[in-house]
Amino acid sequence: MNDQDRRSMPLFAIGTVMKLTELSARQIRYYEEHQLISPERTTGNQRLFSFNDVDKLLEIKNLLDKGLNMAGIKLLLTDKVNKAAEKNETMKITNKELREVLRNELSEAGRFGKSSLRQGELSRFFVKR
Amino acid sequence: MNDQDRRSMPLFAIGTVMKLTELSARQIRYYEEHQLISPERTTGNQRLFSFNDVDKLLEIKNLLDKGLNMAGIKLLLTDKVNKAAEKNETMKITNKELREVLRNELSEAGRFGKSSLRQGELSRFFVKR
DNA sequence: AAATTGATGTAAGGTTTCCTTACATATAAT
DNA sequence: ATTATATGTAAGGAAACCTTACATCAATTT
Question: Is the CB of A99 under 7 A from strand D?
Fold first, then answer.
């Protein structure tokens, strides 16, 4: 079993994810509805989230705090742009530029919630190689 | 938040732990009853297990496979012996000897279950420093 | 300004998972 | 043979989760 397998293992119930991310169940389900995440299900249809899912949710939260809407967040998180970028120089630049543009359009922001876990932090559960 | 905090965070419902360890709920609760683990609880009294708990359960499973009984496992896992050993040369030796004795009393063992996760493996979720 | 859209709250009714307690069982120890 | 150990199983109840639907409130659009 490699890291990627571990990161995508269905582990957490939604209650745990709520605490981990400080998002409401409504929000989490809403983001799933809009295909930002797609947690596995138990045989009884209950959601089980992976580390990847939680990391994504933390990133979503981060971008929400900065004022982005679903569309923007989707653009930044969606495979389309980011994954394509990894394999394509031109895309990579486009992606970078996109991030810049979005970043510049942000309100100066800065006020953080009282989140106990910051975006990307859960990743440290994993071994970096 | 440091590694130890992360390792002891209450994260997993018992169903998840069952899959992770391939132990029955009955077994897991039994080991708690006998103070081998002590998972947190939700406000509604449902168990939430940490990485440490799961790692311990995997170790318990390992020792079970080797024919140890609760008493032996308890000796090997319990703070008393191991933690004390870290700080005391004499104890350390005693502990080592104890391990030897127990090891020698094992049936030659060897047959493993079809466990998808081996003892210690979950630890790799964490950063080793 | 009024209507629409986007994002989240909340409530109802139902299902699944988990809880404890208790008793059954099989193997091992005495 | 009896007792102890470790686990299975079942019952009844509580907690957590599910979907659906409607409410709300801010931001857009008309």
Answer: no
CB A39 within 8 A of CB A53: yes
CATH code that applies to domain B1-67: 1.10.1660.10
CA distance A57 to A30: 11
Nucleotide closest to B49 measured between CA and C1': C18
Is the backbone of residue A45 left (phi > 0), alpha (psi -120 to 50) or beta? left
Whether the per-residue pLDDT at B15 is higher than 50: the answer is yes
Nearest-CA distance B124 → chain A (Å): 6
Task: Give domain limits for chain A.
Answer: 3-123
Q: Taking all residues of chain A, what is their mean pLDDT, rounded to a whole number?
A: 74
Instruction: Check: CB of residue A60 under 8 Å from CB of residue A26.
Output: no
